[in-house]
Design goal:
Length: 423
């Protein structure tokens, strides 16, 4: 979602005739787009802002947008008085105001819902992999999570607006669409005639567009995987056989305290249904270790579920207490050294599973999408249907197929190697 927001911010400045520079000292405006999900990222923002202040050229504007801006509000100006603007994740479309009136201090951290989508200019070029936001905010209120505070309650965009944006992306270069939302599979929009649309309807509409070859979505809440959506994996070949469905913990007690009220049986039942719909589907997860009160045996249960589901790719984090969340004030906060140990153990287990899955792909031929070249310019970087990176030697004739069948020749934990068999 942050990557998407950054694109839109860049496109707004583009529309004003500005060009990007990598050199802070050369820039007329410097914008930090920020995430507040974990404390460490938040702290980095303020030290980085201090560095920008000391490096930027005199008169250059600088500020923060995104969730740290929303969380800090006016206090950001107290911490860094030279800041010119502080704009939340739903008010960054107001950024051009600071260009028109550089002497003001621009502060807006309102939760405007979907207003920004109506105000942002359309993007001229669509990236090969285009993100299309379909809903913002979240109603789940997991006790660790700051998102309901920073991005507000859940709102779904109008079905026709999403289809229009998807078509625009398709006509301007997109080959893969990734539908985005903090609770993406909770998407629900009822039009003026009373017809209700779900994520499965959006997938069906995108799949009809010939330019779009691959479709995916993130991030999903387990119990919102409704049967119509699961069936899409059986019936829609453009929908990739890969799903991020965070379980967070394998302990029912921890899940209850996290306010993620699904049982392990219910979670496994969804996985079974997904596998019945599409035999080769692979799952990834997010995990939090060291949630308040997590015991050794709770943690063991997380390891157990990771091995049972065989997640092929996961994000794991140490629990980070966040303002405005219930878990931050829960008793039995876990000491940092235990969190660190548990994270290392979990990461080891997850890495092993990932390496085994990658190795099981050797000798298979997979339809892959080209996402660019590596730093040396000698290799092409492709993405498999399971979101693995596959490195391929660049053909001498510079013929770079956007989609190619690639035979996998080698694998390690992080990536695959392969050769192009056919376009
Ligand atoms: N909708 C997703 C949230 C995405 S935020 C969900 O199911 O929860 C990305 C990930 O950050 C979360 O899945 C969670 O694992 C992690 N996260 C969120 N708040 C956190 C916190 N306070 N400490 C550590 N990790 C956190």
């Amino acid at each position: 979602m942050n990557v998407y927001d950054s694109w839109r911010i860049a496109a707004m400045l583009d529309a004003r005739g500005m060009v990007a520079t990598k050199d802070v000292a050369d820039a007329d405006i410097i914008i930090l787009n920020t995430c507040s999900v974990r404390e460490k990222a938040t702290n980095k923002v303020f030290s980085e802002l201090g560095r920008v202040r000391d490096t930027k050229k005199p008169g250059a504007l600088f500020g923060i947008v995104g969730c740290v801006a929303r969380e800090a509000g006016a206090t950001a100006f107290h911490r860094i008085p030279e800041l010119n603007f502080v704009l939340g994740p739903q008010s960054y479309h107001r950024l051009p105001q600071i260009l028109d009136d550089p002497d003001t201090k621009l502060l807006n951290i309102d939760l405007g819902g979907l207003e920004k989508f109506d105000e942002l200019p359309q993007m001229v070029h669509a990236p090969t992999v285009s993100y299309i936001p379909i809903q913002e905010g979240c109603n789940h209120c997991c006790t660790y999570c700051i998102v309901p505070y920073t991005r507000g309650r859940e709102v779904s965009r109008a079905f026709d607006d999403v289809v229009r944006d998807t078509l625009h992306a398709a006509k301007n270069g997109a080959v893969e669409i990734c539908f985005l939302g903090q609770n993406v599979n909770g998407y629900k929009y009822t039009d003026e005639n009373g017809k209700t649309y779900r994520l499965s309807d959006l997938i069906r509409a995108a799949a009809k567009m010939p330019e779009i070859r691959r479709i995916r979505f993130t991030s999903s809440y387990p119990t919102e995987m409704t049967d119509d959506l699961i069936q899409m994996f059986a019936t829609e070949p453009k929908l990739l056989p890969f799903l991020n469905m965070p379980i967070q913990s394998g302990s029912p007690d921890v899940l209850r305290r996290m306010n993620r009220p699904y049982s392990l049986d219910a979670y496994m039942e969804i996985i079974d249904k997904l596998r019945a719909a599409r035999g080769d589907i692979q799952i990834s997860s997010d995990f939090i270790v060291g949630f308040p009160g997590e015991t050794d045996s709770d943690f063991e249960q997380t390891l157990e579920i990771a091995r049972r589901v065989r997640y092929i790719n996961s994000y794991s984090f140490k629990y980070s207490p966040r303002p405005h969340t219930a878990a931050a004030t829960m008793p039995n906060q876990i000491p940092e050294n235990i969190k660190r140990e548990r994270l290392a153990v979990l990461d080891n287990a997850l890495n092993e599973i990932q390496r085994e899955f990658n190795e099981s792909c050797v000798d298979k031929t997979l339809p892959c999408l080209c996402e660019g070249t590596d730093k040396t310019g000698r290799h092409l970087l492709y993405r498999t249907p399971y979101m693995q990176q596959c490195i391929v030697a660049k053909p001498k004739d510079d013929n770079i197929p956007t989609m190619a069948n690639i035979k996998i020749t080698a694998a390690n934990r992080a990536s695959l190697r392969g050769k192009i068999i056919s376009d």
